[in-house]
TrEMBL record:
Coiled coil: none annotated. This is Putative fad binding domain-containing protein. It comes from the Eukaryota. Keywords: FAD, Flavoprotein, Oxidoreductase.
Amino acid sequence: MSGSTDTVCQALEVAGISNLFAVRGGGHNLWGAGSIHDGVLIDMSAMNTTTYDPSTGIASIQAGSRWGDAYEVLESHGVMVGGGRESDVSVAGLTIGGGISWYSPRLGLVCDQVKNFEVVLASGEITNANQTENADLWLALKGGASNFGVVTRLDMYTIPVDPIWGGYLVSDKSTTAAHLRAFTNFVANNGKHPDSSYVVLWNYVKSAGDTVIARFLVNTKGVENPPELEESLAIPTLVQVTKKTTLTQLTREFSQPHGSFNFWYTATVKNDPNLLQKAVDLHGDMVQKLQSASSTGEFSTICFFQAVPTVLSEHGRARGGNSTGIDRLRDDNAVLFVAGANTTDPELSGLAGELTACFCADFKTYAESVGGLLPWIHGNHADGSQNPYCEKYNSNNTEIGMENLEKLRTAAKKYDPSGVFQTRVPGGHKLY
């Protein structure tokens, strides 16, 4: 596809003939949301231009752009946006799913950095959605994903660019208790240190033969070894690669290899080291089951935690709100949990996906039983079987998020009255 919005309009006309279609930005989604069989694939990758207007401070980024390429352009202008953490993720897909960036504690979710969306509706109409024009569509697109139209351009707020400090550290799994203490202490105080981010994960790689603990530490003001990360930095390491660099370079170094069957499931829980220890234990159980089933196929697994401070919802409200549901996390800083697995072995992929789903389900059941499960599913990390718009709790069969879901459904009926993006685009999280 050529890099013009008019071409997207034409593609939607062609897709109408075939009945089923998919829209692919970067193809980063793990469960085939950007794929289609017996239909039309609208590939947005040619729409990859980034421009900056110094008179308004707004960056205009076409929807098929990758974050690394957009960052490189913006850094040349001395500005930056609060976008993705890996360079090869597409701008639109991450943003309309909500999006978490290294700048999120300071600025909010990625979707909250969008001043205006250019969108092609199912009718072929090109429209803009912002706080004064089609404001309900603007709000819906900030977390409501691909349920309303094809986003073709995002006009985003910028900030002055700073050097960034960060990198990764790897430790032996025997340091688990120290990592859980350091991480939960950081999470408890993340709102006081909005320039720093901390991700920690337990990672088993079959070819390496054991589980290690990797942590990604970042300070977006370029402060080296900041005090709020001292406890983590003091844990003995096997490998440490941290430095002052640019966001462009850092996101390229954090990008993950392609070519595997990948599975992700997610939940949000209270910031409790004992609760997180349960997830680490369940991850170990999953590893043992995959080890028993795989004689030759390569695979890896993760148990992943990152901070979700309450300031994220505060930033969102200050920017007019969003549709991610994160506003439900107002009381205490929380933890985003991800259960993950990947394999290059097609014969192992079914079991890997099944065990990852069970890992997450078992952890959620336990977390709910001890009062630690929180009502938020982050769409960018959610499997297709999960519902980021409305979460059901097993203990009392309560559905959380129905009010938000009904607002999204109202917007979808208004801007896509024929239900094209609900019924003819098989991939993605749907509203019905």
